[in-house]
Amino acid sequence: MIRRMEIGILGVLLLVSGGLEPLRAEDTGGDAWLRYAPLETAVREKYKSIPASMVVLGDSPVLRTAQSEMTRGLRRMIGRRLTDAKSIQERAIVLGRLAAIRDAAPGLAPPATLAADGFWLVTAQVRGFDCLIVTSSTERGVLYGVFALLSKVARGEMIAPINQVQQPAATLRWVDQWDNLNGTIERGYAGASIFFEKGSVRADLTRVGEYARLLASIGVNGCTINNVNADPRIIDDSFLPQLARIADVFRPWGVQLAVSVDLSSPEALGNLDSFDPLDPRVAAWWRTKVDKIYQQIPDFGGFVVKADSEGRPGPSSYGRTPADAANVIALALRLHRGVLFYRAFVYDHHLDWRNSKNDRARAAYDIFHPLDGRFDDNVIVQIKYGPIDFQAREPVSPLLGGLEKTNEGIELQITQEYTGQQRHLCFLPTMWKEILDFDLHVNGERTPVKALLAGKVFHRPAGALVGVANVGMSSNWLGHPLAVANLYGFGRLAWDPNLSAEVIAEEWTRLTFGNDDVVVKTVTAMLLASWHVYEGYTGPLGAQTLTDILGSHYGPGIDSSERNGWGQWHRADHQGIGMDRTATGTGFAGQYPRAIRDLYETVQTTPDELLLFFHHVPYTYRLHSGKSVIQHVYDSHYEGAEQAAEFVRQWQSIEHRVPNELYKNVLTRLEYQAGHAIVWRDAICNWFLRTSGIPDERGRVGNHPERIEAEAMQLKGYTVMEVTPWENASGGTGVECAKASACTASFRFDRAARTYEMDVQYFDQNNGESKFRVFVGNRQVDDWVANDRLPATRPGGDSSTRRRISGLALRPGDEIRIEGIPGGEERAPLDYIELRASTE
Ligand code: GCW
Q1: Can you give the pTM of this predicted structure?
Q2: Per-residue confidence (pLDDT) for residue 115, from 0 to 100
Q3: From the CA of 85, how far away is ligand 1's center (Å)?
Q4: First to last CA, the chain
Q5: Coil, strand or helix at 327
Q6: 267 within ligand 1 shell (Cβ under 6 A)
């Protein structure tokens, strides 16, 4: 909480800087981009002509929401108190479906093509009065129009006169949550589930309503609330009333409830001895179940299915296909206009890694392409954007171009599983745009992915964009305040994939932080740079995120992908790196339409950023950039880490322009990220130096003259420990304190007298809280508790973090001593310290 005094100071600073009225601490959380902060007087002037009365034609929960949202937004932003009127007797804001508008304003000529959920914002005379009309063929569309209008006001855009139609690109714009019934979230990084707690739906669904509001504001019209690794109980008869409670909360926002189901439910929940999709008893079971769901939730959206994947039951147990499995459930849903999302994330995770022809990337296309045309019309095959699994860089999945007679949806990941887990800044719309804009050249025609998803290319009845969101109880939904831009960006792209990442970043920044140009410029620039920066220090040239594949998917784990069946191989050895996916290798490139296949088949035409995804090359191979592969690995990791440090400086430059608590929260995360980027950089560079034997031309890798290794210090109580894998600790080792009381590591300072900045690199596990103190001679200069919740129970790349001590005056001969007191399972582990002369 910001104290009253701080609000005062902040307010003055913001006014001096020409910003908005002071933001309140609570503004930075639950309302996300829907803060409706009061606009400056000069900006309010623009909206003088907005009518003071509002007429809502019709009555329904969604229309009432639209009405109250408009009232709330205009009151807060421009101080307008709207009065409700029954009919148009004066200048008015008019909300209603097209049919109602036609009756009320027969003279108005609505646009001919207003697709479902699309809306029309128009200023026009009705009965001689100037009106501002928000209309759509659906009620939900009216709500979307209200949000669009309010967004314009918040960003200071003119809204009168206006005549604008906005149409969603795809019919289904859904988010998936991977929430478990016990309240945890698989790959969730923002606290507990907003839906479930201890096996039941939460008693208090306030956050669910707030989430639905956010979703509606960006045009998301469906939400699957539970993990695709589904607990069969989710559709147990006894659970349905609980689901209905969530649907009731979603409904006023036009968000349809959906759930993930376990394909073996007929066996697990029913009394059947089979879940064979072709068994009539199984079909009957699904029909009865679905009917029961619709009795309680008439607007239920449908199901998501993960089957035959990562140990989930599936149709392969009965020799049936995904189409067999999908259609039996889809048939039951079709009677109620429900849809079935069948995930194409089906692969064998026990692949023989010794066989160079094996390739997990092939799986989705190999399995689903032959089934094209065999899925019913209310089935959508849900395809991850890349052929592997949400890596920082992957080529577009060839399956997106491999289904012509089947509805398809793309699955993007808002939760940053492989992209920094909301501890690192990584704005993903930049990546998503590249994917959505990518032209697959299906049948030699222009076929960007976004057009395929819109269902336009092959005239499909449905198309979808799905984002795995995994918001949690964290007050700002995703943990990192800047990560919220990914949720916003997903919705905006699902609605209009033609928007640029720049526009989305700027919209979000304005809505979240206000219209201070300096803030807008700074935050937008940070967001737009961040994906490339993250990619730069985590995984080169399409070799994928070189993370711990077998565990957290968070810190560096370069070799963890190799010699196991998971198939995320990069095949680095002492001579070269990369997977040969051409015709001489696994043949994966051959799954693309010809133009793309040709591009990737040939090493010279493959873009550098995907080189190692498609080709195995020697480290000395020259990229288009002119650099050798190995030098690129070194340079990109050093540049990436430097740019991560730059984020800290960029953020510091807007210190007094954003609310203080938010400022500090983001700063802490960016400083952590800058430190962790160095952990990544060093792990990857050292590993490749050792593996290739080729030194860094610029002599940086393996040379850290400013570093003093803990194992080289004078140790009292501390003992040297090996860290595995070795590259995740500087020098391969650190020290740990196996005693119950304090241990110390000390050394004598022998450099010039002046002021230094000291980084203490230590390991912060989540199974204990060690205490650290730092002394210069007898003077204590810092102390802290290692109580972060990093995803690690031992010292390594996930837990490695740093404490920065600035402005440290040192003289030659000073003794620097670090004292560590273990707590729980954590043995106050230390890696090194680094001392740099202060620049200030
Ligand atoms: O990326 C992997 C994740 C799993 C996830 C799976 C999937 C829900 O590591 O946690 O399971 O993908 O998408 O099904």
Answers
A1: 0.96
A2: 84
A3: 51
A4: 31
A5: helix
A6: no
